[in-house]
Amino acid sequence: MASMNGLRQDLRLIADLVEPNTRVLDVGCDDGALLAFLARTKQVDARGIELSQAGVHDCVSRGLAVVQGDADTDLAIYPDNAFDYVILSQTIQAMRRPREVLGEMLRIGRYGIVSFTNYAYWRARWDLLARGRMPTTRCLPEPWYATPNIHPCTLDDFELLCKELGVVIERRTCLAAGGRRRYLGNGWLNNLLSEQALFVLHRPAAPPV
Fold first, then answer.
1. 30 Cβ partners below 8 Å, 6+ apart?
2. Tens of pLDDT, residues 64-86
3. Is residue 26 part of a domain?
4. Poorest-confidence range of 10-24, 53-67, 129-143?
5. In the structure, what pLDDT confidence band is assigned to residue 5 with cuts at 50, 70 and 90?
6. Do 25 and 112 meet the contact criterion of CB atoms below 8 Å apart?
7. Is residue 138 part of a domain?
8. pTM of the model
9. Strand, coil or helix: what is 193?
10. Is residue 81 within 8 Å of residue 108, measured between CB atoms?
11. For tag attachment on the chain, is the N or C end more exposed, with fewer CB atoms within 10 Å?
């Protein structure tokens, strides 16, 4: 669902989290819609990395500072604390090394913002239970043999990974169909009824010397 600003609703929610005049890196920035919006409305130092040549071309045509690269390997070239926010929207499930990518995000950024499709959503479970088929939904339209999603996960999976890495979850937003927010507290219903999820992460504070 597009917002009044022409962004997908999950991207609009991400944009709301970013403070003005900050440094932002969008990993897997696609056509640069989010970066362009942030640069225009919040005057951020907007930069991106995108794997596809077509996506890079679209971004450059918008006047954005975007380079072609592979987030699985190329985040290592950025220095520590180079950005205030590193964004990974609907991309982590397509990473070959999602654990390492998450660690690199929080090395180079003060905050990481991650959104993804929840594979424990009830419609996905229903496809497996009733049809014996890999799920296809509005957020998962491709058949199993064509999807780029090689590491699908659930809300619980992602939170467990954060715990293993010692990453602090500052905020979690659960989204229903169409990108609407769900307010379900912290119970198991989040994993069942949320089609997508959005997390704000940061590194734990260093212990005092």
1. 50, 55, 58
2. 999 999 999 999 999 999 999 99
3. yes
4. 129-143
5. low
6. no
7. no
8. 0.90
9. helix
10. yes
11. C
